[in-house]
Amino acid sequence: MDVKVKKILYIILGCIGVGLGAVGAVLPLLPAFPFLLLAAFSFAKSSERLHNWFISTKLYKNNLESYVKGRGMTWKTKIRIMVIVTLTMSVGFIMMSRIPVGRIILACVWVFHVLYFVFKVKTIHKGDEKGEYSHCRVLKIEGMHCEQCAKRLECAFHEHEYMKAKVDFPSQTATVYLKQPVDNGFLIQIVKQAGYHADQVC
């Protein structure tokens, strides 16, 4: 297939994904996730400008960003989404009996989302599903001048959904609880971006 034609097809699929994802973000019967994932994949394959635009939208940030950052899903969530999408697409497939192109697009999206959820989406274990923070790191902080500094640093950690933190100003320490292991350098970088310094991680 010609590269230009392939690029155009990816852009069309991306636009369809954005459109259906936007509808799914409003209507509970139509899940937004698989369509937005299709849009992200298609734009990444076809247009850097469209991809950059898409990942800057609230639609992406509210529905897809946390997954892209590596959180994953439980099997229960995966199955629920796949069942809802299959039922929804079955209705659309039946109604498009006179639109073969529409049926082909729906079939491709369905196959893509099933394969991706089964083989590519990270599965969160049962302990993670309950919200258990099974990992802990203690950082020695330098540069905090008041309790407000401690609150500011806590907020910086809480921006990441898989971690929570308790920053103690008197002892100049931050205790970070994690649902999944992370590199110590990443935690130090969070401290640095908040305007402080950490050189010890326990």
TrEMBL record:
Record flagged with keyword Plastid: no
PROSITE patterns: HMA_2 (PS50846)
UniProt keyword annotation of Membrane present: yes
Residue ranges crossing the lipid bilayer per the database entry: 7-27, 79-95, 101-119
Pfam family, one: HMA
CDD domains, alphabetized: HMA (cd00371)
Ranges for domain HMA: 135-199
GO CC, any one term: plasma membrane
Full protein name: HMA domain-containing protein
